[in-house]
Specification:
Elements: E1 3-8, H1 19-27, E2 30-35, H2 43-48, E3 57-62, H3 67-86, E4 91-95, H4 104-112, E5 118-122, H5 127-135, E6 146-150, E7 162-166, H6 172-181, E8 185-190, E9 198-200, H7 203-209, E10 214-219
Parallel strand pairs: 1-4, 1-5, 2-3, 2-4, 6-7
Antiparallel strand pairs: 7-10, 8-9, 8-10
Helix pairs in contact: 3-4
The structure holds S-adenosylmethionine.
Length: 221
């Protein structure tokens, strides 16, 4: 029976895929990758492109960021995948970072549960783990907690010491205000592992850059 493989391709560096991810991509007959903007590039696909064998069917599916169309688009993508699986072809669904961290894959899997196809998930290096390595900074240590949150929740920080803030784009000012108010030391990382990779700690430079693919690692004593 055909299998759907959910594959984490890491942060965007084609050397940061696991061996298992590469081998699975190489042998799937169909590769599906998400993009955030209709007709736009898929970072996951660009990251994995060199591992896709000639003759593979490659499709980019649009997954809008807003909540409104998300479920419908996930269903559309799933119907496409289901049709390929019914033909007996294995499908690789690529996601940036890890498939189970803020990923379109999770939405899509809701539709997979009821059908009889096999699903296998291959983990990937998350963007924040890659960012921590890039800046040589500890994410969490000892018996502390690490909180990973989207920028929209930054006002809910209470007594956390180690945090990762994802989806910073368009929320930069508010995030930096809160972090500074609460005495955090922070580093902003954008396009980790990709062309244009940037590391910033200066507030004004962060506000000037405002990159879509960005996150912040922060900690305090
Ligand atoms: C939809 S989430 C995907 C997270 C991904 N599944 C992971 O495991 O890292 C997109 C967010 O991940 C972060 N991100 C993904 N790739 C990144 C990169 N190469 N550099 C910096 N941040 C990245 C950004 O915060 C971005 O807004």
């Amino acid at each position: 029976m055909a299998t759907l493989y959910g594959i984490g391709v890491g942060p965007g560096d084609s050397e940061l895929l696991t061996v298992k991810a590469v081998r699975t991509i190489e042998r799937c007959q169909v590769v599906v990758a998400p993009c955030a903007i209709e007709g736009g590039e898929s970072i996951a696909l660009e990251t994995a492109r060199e591992y896709i064998k000639p003759g593979t069917e490659v499709i980019v599916k649009h997954f809008p960021m807003g909540k409104k169309d998300r479920v419908i688009k996930a269903l559309e993508a799933y119907e496409f995948i289901e049709a390929r699986l019914r033909e007996g072809r294995d499908v690789a669904f690529l996601t940036i970072g890890d498939p189970y961290v803020y990923s379109t894959y999770s939405h899509m899997l809701k539709h997979v549960r009821d059908c009889g196809f096999e699903v296998q998930t291959i983990p990937g290096i998350t963007s924040f783990c890659a960012a921590a390595s890039l800046v040589n900074r500890t994410l969490v240590v000892g018996d502390e907690e690490l909180v990973i949150m989207p920028a929209t929740k930054v006002r809910e920080i209470t007594d956390e010491k180690f945090i990762v803030i994802m989806k910073v784009y368009k929320h930069e000012e508010e995030v930096l205000d809160v972090l500074e108010e609460k005495g955090f030391d922070y580093v902003y990382a954008s396009r980790v592992g990709r062309e244009g990779e940037t590391i910033l700690t200066d507030r004004n430079e962060i506000l000037r850059l405002r990159d879509y693919m960005s996150l912040i690692i922060a900690s305090r004593d």
